[in-house]
Description:
Layout: H1 9-20, H2 29-36, H3 40-47, H4 55-64, H5 69-83, H6 87-104, H7 120-127, H8 130-138, H9 142-146, H10 148-155, H11 159-171, E1 175-178, E2 181-184, H12 198-215, H13 232-254
Antiparallel strand pairs: 1-2
Helix pairs in contact: 2-3, 2-4, 4-5, 5-6, 8-11
Amino acid sequence: MSIFRFFNYRECLTHCVQVRQSTRPDLNFQKLAEGARVSKSYLSKVLSGKANLSGDQLFLIAQELKLSEDETSYLELLLEKERCGVKERIRLFDRRLSEMRERHLQARSFLVSEEAASVPEGLQLYYLDPWVTLVHVGLTIPTYSRNPQRLAQALGIDSKTLDACVTSLVTLGLAEHTLKGVRILKDSVHLEKGSPFYPAWRSQLQLLGLSRCARQRGQNAMGISVVFSSNEKARNEFHTRLLELISQVQGLVAEGPFEDLYQFNVDLFRWTPEQS
């Protein structure tokens, strides 16, 4: 559950209670009211939009819900924005809230992964050639790890390109040569979005994927593009659900067995300038 998808602290509190009740059956709105040192009827008015919490009351509720410092700060900003009557200050709150959403609603927050390498040379080896990524994941499939040349044929690359990719993986400590082929030592890596290597790596991998998808249209390949008009709240909810889907897909993938190589691209962006 991510509270950073919400634009209203009341909706967020209601959702938090509902989610946490699965692991804390004793948690209810009566207990929440007691934690905030208010009556249950007053808390009911707050959640229905007929009253407001004070900063201290919201803080006590966040403690009862065991929210993190950042989650608590986010709720406090939502509360302050709602109680604010100065347009310039409201815009300041909007910017700070947007920054927190951007920081927390990223794929990295929803995935379990490891870094490929921390040194610049390693990052260059792994992320400046998208074929290294494809070969890396492809070699987690037993059929191809036992006979890497079959992976070269499946990807449509020559032996020289395959060997260069495997050499990069071995140099980075992600793979090793064995008598039975190539063994992957670390099968999950992740590149930070803020890395200078990210734009080039992502663009190249997307282009390779689009080319492959175009050739496989109608043969276990799916592509979709949608343009729609909406608002920031809906976009934020869409964004969060996409990240939750990615997290669920990772769980399905981890269950194995590994038999085929797939690529999944996701883009969600604004065409028009942000409204002031």
